[in-house]
Specification:
Elements (H helix, E strand, L loop, with lengths): L1 E6 L5 E3 L6 E3 L5 E10 L7 E10 L4 E2 L7 E2 L3 E5 L2 E2 L6 E6 L6 E3 L4 E5 L4 E10 L5 E11 L28
Parallel strand pairs: 7-14
Antiparallel strand pairs: 1-4, 2-3, 4-5, 6-9, 8-12, 10-13, 11-12, 13-14
Length: 171
């Protein structure tokens, strides 16, 4: 027969008294210890106990929900973040290709200056210190540079043979 004789199990985890198996789904982060005792059915019963440490972490997830759009020849920067799991975190590109001029560092910094307009479908992965990983799909849009500051020059000539005719030129 197995039983917890000191401490507690995380919420959502149960002990099977017959087999000693722990099962269930933790419902919240937890850090603590418990002492498990096993006792046989002999008379008098033989028993042994042992204390265990247990730590349940919040699930690992990427915190950046979407990437901001960028423009050609304009410096771009976006920082991926994570929560849960065990820091430190490492970021990597799983699928897709970054636009020319843009890179992703292992610390999660997406930066650079794009050289051409593009739309890239990406999957980014975060891996924590214990090797647990999570990933999310993103779309990175690099837009063509805006048209601005141009000049327009017009010239025209109008000939009038009669000074009583009115001429209107609209541009």
């Amino acid at each position: 027969q197995f039983s917890v004789i000191d401490g507690q199990l995380p919420n959502g985890i149960t002990l099977d008294g017959a087999t000693g198996a722990l099962s269930g789904t933790p419902t919240a982060p937890f850090s603590g210890s418990f002492t498990l005792r096993v006792r046989d059915s002999a008379i008098p019963p033989a028993e042994a106990s042992r204390t265990y440490q247990i730590r349940i972490l919040q699930p690992l997830e990427l915190t950046l929900l979407e990437l901001p759009a960028g423009s050609v020849n304009v410096p771009y920067q976006a920082q991926f973040g994570a929560q849960g799991g065990a820091a430190p975190y490492t970021f990597s590109l799983v699928t897709g290709s970054l636009p020319n001029g843009i890179t992703l560092s292992s610390s999660g910094l997406l930066s650079g200056t794009a050289t051409a307009a593009a739309t890239a479908a990406l999957t980014v992965r975060v891996t924590d210190a214990q090797g647990t990983s999570a990933q999310r799909r993103y779309e990175l849009r690099i837009q063509a540079p805006p048209v601005n500051g141009g000049s327009l020059s017009l010239s025209t000539s109008v000939g009038v043979s009669n000074s009583q005719n009115e001429v209107t030129v609209a541009i």
